[in-house]
Amino acid sequence: MKYVLVTGGVVSGLGKGVTASSIGVILKACGLRVTSIKIDPYLNTDAGTMSPFEHGEVFVLDDGGEVDLDLGNYERFLDITLTRDNNITTGKIYQAVINKERRGDYLGKTVQVVPHITDAIQEWIERVAMIPVDGKEGPADVCVIELGGTIGDIESMPFIEALCQFSYRVGSNNFCLIHVSLVPVLNVVGEQKTKPTQHSVRGLRGLGLTPNILACRSTKPLEGNVKEKLSQFCHVPAGNIITLYDVSNIWHIPLLLRDQKAHEAILKSLNLLGIAREPNLTEWTARTELCDLLYDPVRIAMVGKYTGLSDSYLSVLKAVLHASVACRRKLHIDWVPAGDLEDTTAKEAPDVHKAAWDILKGADGVIVPGGFGDRGVEGKILAAKYARENKVPFLGICLGMQIAVIEFARSVLGLHDANSTEFNPETTNPCVIFMPEGSKTHMGATMRLGSRRTYFRVTDCKSAKLYGNVSFVDERHRHRYEVNPDMVSQLENAGLLFVGSDEGGRRMEIAELPGHPYFVGVQFHPEFKSRPGKPSALFLGLIAAACGQLDVVLQYYGHIRKLMTRKTGMSNGHGMVKTHQNGNTEKPSNGCLNCVYSNGNGVHL
């Protein structure tokens, strides 16, 4: 096993996750199999109980792991399926060590950071690196490890020590360290400054790790004299100093790495030059260029409570982008704080209230994503009502589906106190109730989590057609509340159709409004399985409806996916293919600029 470690210096938020993902992309393009591990030095066991404002979204894996959002980047870029163990936290390591101590596994020895914690970290890395994540048998060739935080953080010290020992133990030909650092430009001087990176590398070397490659974040490409200076003071060859400058979209990062021969430096460090091929990024390049060339806009209103931090909805944003590129539309996200739509805001801040409603009314489509807590819920209900009554394409995810059900019960059934027991435990019309197996005393990992199967109860519906008319789909869940099964027949008799449920038919998974251009609510989170070139079916439906292309997509796209599902045996609805102008179909070639429907509607497959 070969290991690539990505560390960061100077400041956080430089894009280590995207850099690590892009390294994986270019190594995969060289013909290597790649897996990834993210190390988060915080004491939390996982990301499940952390506020989105604190740490961005919680990404959910197939096995139910609630992990750091960077694992979402890994899955999207590399098209792999990771496990909860691919996210290492200080909490997990200490918990494992303490459990061993309680069992007596250490035979009475004093348990210490060195060697017990550091050994546990190394054992975890080696064990998880061997788990195949690409659907093939056997371990990957390269494991890309990202160490969260910045060099010098107190909480990172056990991991730094463990990785020092690890690099020595596996050998220099099996370990490559890439340090991501900042090269700022002071506006007064206009010169690229190397001192922050020099100090960061000096700190890294003082801790026992020497970088093989420097990945320098900057607004513009590094000047030649700046590279030479960094090389001299950081003891890194100038050819191994890569510039990751600002780009129009993050899909350019693997191309930057390729153009600067980063893959050759990595392969040389890992003694793989004679094994790997030149990177083939033809499809990736074409898709990246296509994204930059898009002009016709599609405006999507994102109505949520965490709109102050876009990372809170990172996977949703990526899923909408994937669908927009597939429909050849330039995506514009309009953020609408849900609370600003409410009547109380109209009284306290009328200008803010009017601005929020103006944004909502100017949108081509509306998304109400998941969330927890009652803040902004009434605003989300108003957004769902507006979309329903005005025939605006709507997608409600998790809580977004629940509020759509509540709004329908209030407006159509006349149940004015209809609500979720999460927000009003005393309601006489509980449309949404607490799950029987849920816990009200413990928050972490007590929800319905991970990949669960949804069976279509109705085949002649938009959702089923978008998924390729398969009998079931597997999507990821994260919720404690669900639609009250005792009210389903009442809601359906009034016109809200539940087209998907669990195997027992008690848990409602997909709701649709027949006769509406596109009004879909889902209890699961389809955004977690969307990929560049393989957009989530339901997000594709939303964007297609917002662009007036839904009929084309339902007619062609669903039929093609059904054909591929039969050919490949895929039952999850993600068997995207492309259709050439000659009518042939094959597996994805995401960058083919000629793959459009012959009727000129511009749906890109």
Overview of the structural elements:
The protein has 605 residues and is of the alpha/beta class. Strand 22 and strand 23 (585-586) form a beta hairpin.
Number of helices: 20
Number of DSSP strand runs: 23
What would you call the shape? globular
Mean of pLDDT: 88
Distance between the termini: 36 Å
How would a textbook summarize the main sheet?
Answer: 9 strands, mixed
Low-confidence runs (pLDDT<50, min 5 residues)?
567-605
List the helices and strands and how they pair.
Blueprint: E1 2-8, H1 16-29, E2 34-40, H2 52-55, E3 59-60, E4 66-67, H3 70-78, E5 87-89, H4 90-103, H5 113-129, E6 142-147, H6 157-170, E7 175-182, H7 195-206, E8 213-218, H8 224-234, E9 241-245, H9 253-259, H10 262-269, H11 282-293, E10 297-304, H12 314-326, E11 330-337, H13 343-348, H14 350-361, E12 365-368, H15 377-389, E13 394-397, H16 399-411, E14 419-420, E15 430-434, E16 448-456, H17 462-466, E17 472-479, E18 481-483, H18 488-493, E19 497-501, E20 508-512, E21 519-522, H19 537-546, H20 550-568, E22 578-579, E23 585-586
Parallel strand pairs: 1-6, 1-7, 2-5, 2-6, 7-8, 8-9, 10-11, 10-12, 12-13, 13-21, 14-15
Antiparallel strand pairs: 3-4, 15-18, 16-17, 16-19, 19-20, 20-21, 22-23
Annotation keywords:
alpha/beta, 605 residues, globular
Give a quick summary of the entry:
The chain is α/β, with parallel strands linked by helices. The protein has 20 helices and 23 strands. It is globular, with a radius of gyration of 25 Å.
